[in-house]
Design goal:
The protein is mainly α. The protein has a single domain, classed as MetI-like (MetI-like fold, Orthogonal Bundle). 74% of the residues lie in helices and 2% in strands. It contains ten helices and two strands; from the N terminus they run ααααββαααααα. The protein has a two-stranded antiparallel ribbon. Strand 1 and strand 2 form a beta hairpin. Helix 1 packs across helix 10, helix 2 runs parallel beside helix 5 and helix 2 crosses helix 8. The longest helix is centred in the last third of the chain and has 39 residues. The protein is elongated. It starts with 7 loop residues before the first helix and ends with a helix.
Amino acid sequence: MDYTLTLQNFITLFGQGFSDGAWPSLLDTLFYAGIAAPITALFGLLIAYIVVRQQFRGKKTIEFTTMLCFAVPGTVAGISYILAFNSAPIYLTGTAAIVIISMVMRNVPVGIRPGITGLGQLDKSLDEASLSLRAGAMRTIVYILLPLLRLAILSALIYSFVRAITTVSAIVFLVTPDTRVATAYILNRVEDGEYGVAIAYGSILIVVMLAIIFLFDYLVGESRTARSKAKNAQ
C-alpha cells in the first residue's frame, strides 16, 4: 500500500462531471434526505401532539409502537420493504419513494421524542385559550405550538437529516442504479478494495454534515439571541 498524501481519490470521485463518479449518489442522497427530514419532523410532531395532548385508550401503545422502529434491525426492515412494496397495488421497489419512506420510518422516533419533551413543557392552558377563541386544532398547532416548538423541530431536523445521509442497513436492499445513495456507493468501493476512494467519500460526507449542523445551529443561535434580547429589554 502507498500511504503518500494525494488528492487523486477526490479527483476520481468528483472530477468526472456531475453525471459520473460520486456526484449522482451525493446529489441523490442530499435530495432524499432533504425530503425525508421535514416529513420526519412533522410526522413525529403530530404523533407527539396526539400522545401528549389527547386523552384516549391505547395512547401508550401508540408511543411504544413508534419506538419499535429503533428495535427492528435495518436488514429486516429493508427486506420487509421489498416484500411489502414489490407487487400491486403499491409497487415501489426500485423507486426513490421507497428510499424516502425507509429514511422517514427509521427516524420517526427522532421526531417524536423532541416533540413530546417540548409539548410537555407547554401548559395546556395555551391550547384551551386558543380553542376558547374559536380557533381549530390545526390553527392552534400552526400559530401557537409550532413557534414555541421551534428548537425541538430544528433538533429533529438536524438529527433526522444526518441519520438519513448515513443510513446503511436498510438502504442497501432498496437502492438501484437509478436511486443511488452515498453510503451504498461507499460500501461498493470497500467491497472492490478501493479503500482510499471510500475514505475520501466518507470525509466529504463528514464535511457536508458538519456544514448542515452549523447552519441549523446558526438558526437556533439566532432564536436564542432573539429571546435573550427580548428578555433583557423587559
